[in-house]
Amino acid sequence: MGEAVRASHGLEAFHIPPTMQSVVREPWWRRDPFLIGCFDFAWNGGAPKLIEYNADAHATLPESTRMQSVWHADRAGPWARVA
Q1: What is the pLDDT of residues 5-24, one digit of tens each?
Q2: Fewest beta carbons less than 10 Å away: which of 25, 27, 28, 30?
Q3: Which of 66, 71, 54 is nearest to 15 (CA)?
Q4: Contact status, residue 69 vs residue 82, Cβ threshold 8 Å
Q5: Are the beta carbons of 5 and 14 closer than 8 angstroms?
């Protein structure tokens, strides 16, 4: 993530609109603390429906890191590295 934050167009790989990139960069540079959580959505034709937000389940960390990294690598983003 650090590489993406430092690169001028790095956050575009994550589909973060230019108008929102400072919302990501500024806390990163300040080293703000963060929470890891997982949103579960369902689609039924129209708009997505939020099923739950989970920040305390045992699967939150793997779902928020490894599995999302694999998904991003499948989409061939420039910072898509899977260890």
Answers
A1: 899 888 888 888 899 999 98
A2: 30
A3: 71
A4: yes
A5: no
* Amino acid symbol at 49: K
User: What H or E segment, with its residue span, contains residue 38?
Assistant: strand 38-43
Give the CA radius of gyration of the chain: 14
**Length in residues, the chain:** 83
State how far the alpha carbon of 64 is from the alpha carbons of 7, 19, 47, 56, 74, in Å. 23, 24, 23, 12, 16
Reported as a single tens digit per residue, the pLDDT across 48-64 is: 889 988 777 666 666 66
Place of tokens 């934050």: 5
